């Protein structure tokens, strides 16, 4: 059994989607970051950085924070959504790190300046909008000749997709990225993705793309 500590953010949804894809039993603990629940001392023992998501795997005794580390751990433990072979696995790691170091942080800044605080800083709005458009173009090119980021469906896709699902917050029109749009819609149609997206609670329909 796994305890999942999460909230309705792209990083949180990565893990709930993977748990649904793996068909694992898990208990959800809502950490309402709008109410500063992430600073509760009990949560700090599980996630020292005060960030969601985090898990406790009672089977192995492993406690983990950081969504990318959790995805890798679960995929490796259960032998799914990671390809065989060193080169293929390294490619998945490469794109997982691309999301963790680029797409996620830049999208998060775009959300802050474009969605929540428009008009506060024209420079910041332009900077993060431009960089996010560049990253979308990188992903669109990667998807130009294959169905998923690394060829087959993997944790690289599961990591990136929830951030793309907030394209409206980022003022991105997916019509300008046809390969990415096809990929987004295909993953959106998966039943585990639809279920995992609404953990820990329903926050409206999944954007159609």
Summarize the structure in words.
The structure is a single chain. The protein is an alpha+beta fold and 209 residues long. It has helices spanning 10-22, 41-44, 67-78, 86-116, 122-142, 155-164, 178-188, 191-197; strands at 2-6, 26-30, 54-57, 62-65. Strands 2-1-3-4 form a four-stranded mixed beta sheet, with helices on one face. Strand 1, helix 1 and strand 2 form a beta-alpha-beta unit. Helix 1 (10-22) runs parallel beside helix 3 (67-78), helix 4 runs parallel beside helix 6 and helix 5 (122-142) crosses helix 7.
Q: Give me the number of helical elements.
A: 8
- Strand composition percent: 5-15%
Mean pLDDT: 97
Annotation, overall tally of beta strands: 4
- The computed structural class is alpha+beta
Outline type: globular
Instruction: State the order of secondary-structure elements, H for helix, E for strand.
Output: EHEHEEHHHHHH
Counting copies of identical and different chains, the oligomeric state is single chain
The profile of the biggest β sheet is: 4 strands, mixed
Radius of gyration (CA) equals: 17 Å
Under CATH, the topology of the largest domain is which?
Glutathione S-transferase Yfyf (Class Pi), Chain A, domain 2
Helix content: 40-55%
Amino- and carboxy-terminal Cα gap: 34 Å
Name given to the CATH architecture of the largest domain = Up-down Bundle
Poorly predicted spans: none
Q: How many structural domains in the coordinates?
A: 2
Query: Major sheet: order of its strands?
Result: 2-1-3-4
CATH class annotation of the largest domain:
Mainly Alpha
